[in-house]
Amino acid sequence: MSMRRKNYVLVALAIAALALFPQVVTNPYYIHLAETILIYAILLFGLDIVVGYTGQVSLGHAGLFGIGSYTAGILFFKFGMPFYLAVPGAIAVAALFGAVLALPALRVTGPYLAMVTLAFGTIIQILINEMTFLTEGPLGIKVPKPIFFGHKLGEVEYFYVVALLMVAALIVVHRIVKSHLGRAFEALRDSPVACDCMGVSVYRYKVYAFVISAALAGLAGSLYTYSEEYISPNTYNFELTILFLLAVIMGGRKTRSGGLVGALIVVMLPSLLSDIELFRQIASIAATIAVATAAWSLFKKEKTAREIAVPVAATVGMAVFSYYLENITDWRLTIFGFMTLFVVYYLQDGIVGYLRGIVERFRPKAIRHHEVYLDHGDDRHIWAAPDHAVSGSGHLLEARKVLMQFGGLKALNELDLNVVKGSIHGLIGPNGSGKSTMMNVLTGIYQPTAGQVEFNGAVISGNTPSAIALAGVARTFQNVQLFGEMTAIENVLVGLHHTFKSHIVDVMLQSGRYSAEERDARVRAASLLDFVGLNALHNEEARNLPYGKQRLLEIARALALNPSLILLDEPAAGLTAPDIKELIGIIQKIRDHGITVILIEHHMDVVMGISDTVTVLDFGQKIAEGKPAAVQADPKVMMKPSPPALERRTQMLKIHNLQAGYGKVEVLHGISLEVPKSKVVTLIGSNGAGKTTTMRAISGMIAPTGGEIRLGGQAITGLPAHRIARAGMAHSPEGRRVFATLSVTDNLLLGAYPRLTFSRPKGDIQADLERVFELFPRLKERREQLAGTLSGGEQQMLAMGRALMLNPDVLLLDEPSMGLAPLLVEEVFRTIARLKSAGITMLLVEQFAAAALKVADYGYVLENGRIAVHGDAAQLKKDPAVQAAYLGQAH
Prior knowledge:
six-stranded mixed beta sheet, single chain, alpha/beta, 24 strands, 36 helices, globular
């Protein structure tokens, strides 16, 4: 039986169970409880759109629920409107208030949004209580069950009305979140900047999410009014809004079943906790399950004793404690809070996510987190007719006297840039020269302080990023900005969002127009993935792809916009020599199709080999421009000499049979390597081979599933990352990971944090700080600047300097040259050589295999999570197979 058919069978069984419930359980009290669960589930479906999909924390949904309740009550009580008019009225009024609630969400996020929405809910409760002329204030409003054709519905009959509307709401929400609208909501959560640059307006879709969510809250509130037959202001209080939010988290975000489970918990748990005997039984069962699960995890070596100690002790302790209680009433809220905290902390995917994990252990194919796209691409669907005709000839883009100032720093200083239509225009320069700032100005992320940008005959400076994207300007990012929890093909489908003309009614009804647009978009998305060589990874989550593949996915997503101009920001970063050769072919095909390309890249052979024109920037100003050969010969394109290195005595690192991965995907299949004292060992291999996973397992960022790691003879396997750092292991990670809101100096001092507070030798921290500044003079120039405003290359230097501030025994360097200009790459490797001569032990992962093998003493080649070959670095460099695979040459 196919997965789709199984789902239909399960849905049919669930609906049958819902229909039979009042016939099997005849007690009116339990029917009313079930009715309340269904009503709360409707609200939670909508709240999950805001919390689970768009990533906004709303504490105002109790207020929206109250608005729906009181709108229905007032329409009946004051105006005598029947059920079939009062309910749509409640939905409309709540949706209107949802749009109002969305306004602060456009300006604030995180805890600030939570506080604003909480204030909204409080204000609504106060207004309901004080507007006695409309709401009857504390007296409340009485509303009888609905009357249809002169017949007043009984409890069972109204249960079926609620059940029918709950199923309808579930279907509507499911269709929305699985459509282009749902993909837009998910993209908002993962990367609002990338979302805007895909033509999906953050402003608009945040409002959509709140309006849809509020409409469902209004529906739930109106049904609640008729269910209770009496409403009063104290119902819609702070406790209720907290319960709603916790229900989404506990049930499991991004699932409709999670909403039902969450509603069940909110309604039933307080009642269950009122009976001491029942609580003892529940606590005993929970403790038994916890012990059995822990024992199984230890037997299968999926968890360590340390990881299971706290949850097992907590559940067993709760069971024992329950038998010492004589009256649970006084402890009910405390126990409820404890259980909630436990679920949130240990079941981060909620109860539904936990249950999915259990099923997946035994039947991996039975669980599907994402819809599987089976459409296959072809060459005909890679390209589409331009959405906007390119007018005239000559320059497609002209930037005139662009000034971009951050405080006293001029990142761009009256820069002119003219890009010829149909050309590849290279943009190069040292780190911090303003290249990525120029990209951000051209795509509307930054509004220039002065000057203007004209594209295709129209001024675009001052427009929003989404408007510029829809006008025909697409881009990739220096720091990859993919939608991590979405699959590769879903990422590309976000780029194709502009091709959908269907509105929300089409989505809810699954109209022919929407179905045709979705089908066409899937075929084109598959074609674009084939074009960049990702045809085998359609349904893989973007965050699980190797770094180089993520770069290619960004290009496919940008091409989905059907642009006239595409801006590629360091697309070759993280790619091996064969991958770079493939990338060059992709860029040339893009240009051959008539798309103009602006290319920022530190691989000079790439820029000089394919660019028609090259512009060189330095400190925000143009210092050279022309044909590649002329630019290469320009004497102004130079770099500074390298500074002295640090000195440090070190130990050694041993790894034996290391196994590690992500979830059920094993990446490392038992690798062993040694890093001798005062030596440099390099780990090379293709993208996806497991190099970064190795570094993360060593430093404790992920827990190994097998094997042993020893630092200076001390076992560190499975220790948390902070304890490994205290033991003397410093990690300069791939992707920089600097603290964006702290200054350069504060970032570096945080690297020395274990020396200040723990058992690491303290030493002269200030002297080490000055030595790092000697190593990286650019950091000294920017010592008080926020790390988030540094260029990509400067952030790379900062990450490396921060690791050195630990005064480590072993230094892990993961792609230290990524994002650096070629001459600066040379400087980095000269620095590594001097660190080596000073006696620092290093494990180096590097995309420039030739440079890594040149500076290293010993090398390991990793293929598909296994060591394929290892030996003296000089010998590996001469190996023809290694040369062909990783050095881009063969002798």
